[in-house]
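Example protein as discussed:

>
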Amino acid sequence: MIGYLNLMLRLAIWFLLTADFSLANITIGIFISLILPQSYSSYKNPGAIKDWLRALGEAIVAIPQAYIEALQIIIRPHNGEDVIMEQVRPNRTPGLIFLDIFVITFTPKTVVLKYHQEGQYEVHHVRRRRKS
């Protein structure tokens, strides 16, 4: 099951990069997705499927959230900004870490500046300044 999720993630990334759904491009994308090295550590983790489903659910929720945040930025200016460190959830595979970074960066008010190997994301937040 995890192998199919990894394959689908790789194909999704391929289609996002190429923006071409021709038969030749689909064939190339499948070929590249299959020859890239696989991480077998995710097969040993029984909670990995639950983590994948949760991450995919967060990605789906991020789409309307991105529109809402974009409208908020258009309507009311956001002049403040913060850079904070967010902890990575334990036992995350590289594919799940990528999805986490994608979800954080997909919304207009946040962007991941750096992933630290110690298990933290450096996240830039845009916010409204409080009037003093």
Remarks:
- The mean pLDDT is 83.
- The beta strands are 80-87, 110-116, 120-127.
- Helices lie at 2-18, 23-35, 41-44, 48-75, 94-106.
- The first strand starts at residue 80 and ends at 87.
